[in-house]
Amino acid sequence: MDDDLTTPVENTWCPGCGNFGILNAFRKAIQKLEKQGIDRKDLMISAGIGCHGKIFDYVPLSGLYSLHGRSMATVQGIKLGNPNLKVLTFAGDGDAFG
Predict the structure, then answer these.
(1) What is the pLDDT of residue 15?
(2) Among candidates 68, 69, 24, 71, which has minimal Cα distance to 46?
(3) Distance from CA of residue 89 to its chain's centroid?
(4) Which pLDDT score, from 0 to 100, does residue 21 have?
(5) Does the residue 17 lie in any domain?
(6) What is the domain range of residue 82?
(7) Class of residue 65 by CB neighbours under 10 A (exposed 0-12, middle 13-18, buried 19+)
């Protein structure tokens, strides 16, 4: 397993973007969940469109992009479909407003 949770996808966020901090914190959270016995295959992520949504490409977890403003509804549907999964979503300002 890849302990640092990286992917070969080139990160295209602007230097100084706050998304870097979110990505690093998310990777640490995943590692803590794994130490608690939660397997990566039991995690699903979703993200809307836009720069924040690129986080989906930078973490080797299963999931999908959702429509703009619909990432919360997407993970709710995933959880309804398989209650055993742990779901996470990322929303930018446009997603949260939507």
Answers:
(1) 94
(2) 71
(3) 6
(4) 95
(5) no
(6) 39-97
(7) middle
SS3 content of the chain, % helix, strand, coil (to 5): 45, 15, 40
Q: Is residue 48 part of a domain?
A: yes
Coil/strand/helix, residue 49: coil
Nearest partner of 38 among 85, 90, 88, judged by Cα: 85
The two tokens of residue 41 are 């295959």
Nearest of 81, 84, 97, 3 to residue 64 by alpha carbon: 81
Distance CA 8, CA 26 (A): 17
Instruction: Flag whether 53 is in a domain.
Output: yes
Q: Is residue 32 part of a domain?
A: no
Number of domains in the chain: 1
Contact 96, 71 (CB under 8 A): no
Kindly list the averaged pLDDT for each block of 10 residues, start to end, along the chain of length 98: 80 93 94 94 90 90 87 92 94 74
pTM of structure: 0.85
What does the pLDDT read at residue 66? 87
